[in-house]
Amino acid sequence: MYVSKSNENWISVLHDYFVWGTVKEIGKTLFSLIEEPVMTVGYMNEEIFELSFFENGNLQAERIFCEQWTRDEYEQLKEERLNDDYLRKALDIRIEDFEDLISITRPEQAVDKLSEIVRMSLWSDSEWITHEETLRERFGTYEF
């Protein structure tokens, strides 16, 4: 795993095993180890951006950003727990900015908007670390 303090509030964890369907499970496990709120971000095939928050041992909130055709194509693609008040408070977002964020349906735009709001890049992949010196300097490597 690669770990970095991304800003004053968040720590980023990257791993090549983080694929669709595993990101939330890893978030749940990570929460049980550190007992701090955990935000997971999953991005798949430029079609889906999934944002989930874990706290108090449970999924507290989730939001999936995608076009309607994607929801139609992936029949099981539904939020497990819509809780926009929790999301807004956890991210410390002004109501106007939050309304702008949740109205976005294009995953790429949602990632960019959320990156701007939390003041850190959410565009990361563990594969990039070996190729980019700035990422190698920022992320520490941990073997489990």
Notes on the protein architecture:
The longest helix is centred in the first third of the chain and has 12 residues, at 23-34. Helix content is 39%, strand content 23%. The protein has helices at 23-34, 68-73, 84-91, 95-102, 107-118, 126-129, 133-138, and strands at 2-5, 11-14, 38-44, 48-55, 58-65, 140-141. The radius of gyration is 15 Å and the shape is globular. The model has no long low-confidence stretch (mean pLDDT 80). The strands form 2 sheets. The protein has a 3-stranded antiparallel beta sheet. It has a 3-stranded antiparallel beta sheet with strand order 3-4-5, with helices on both faces. By secondary structure, the chain is α+β, with helices and mostly antiparallel strands.
Low-confidence sequence ranges: none
**How many extended strands?**
6
Give the distance, in angstroms, between the N- and C-terminal Cα atoms: 8 Å
The residue fraction in helices comes out at: 25-40%
Shape: globular
Average pLDDT works out at: 80
Number of helices: 7
Radius of gyration: 15 Å
Cross-sheet strand order for the largest sheet: 2-1-6
- Largest beta-sheet characterization: 3 strands, antiparallel
- What string, H for helix and E for strand, traces the elements in order? EEHEEEHHHHHHE
Q: Approximately what portion of the residues adopt beta-strand conformation?
A: 15-25%
The class by helix and strand makeup works out as alpha+beta
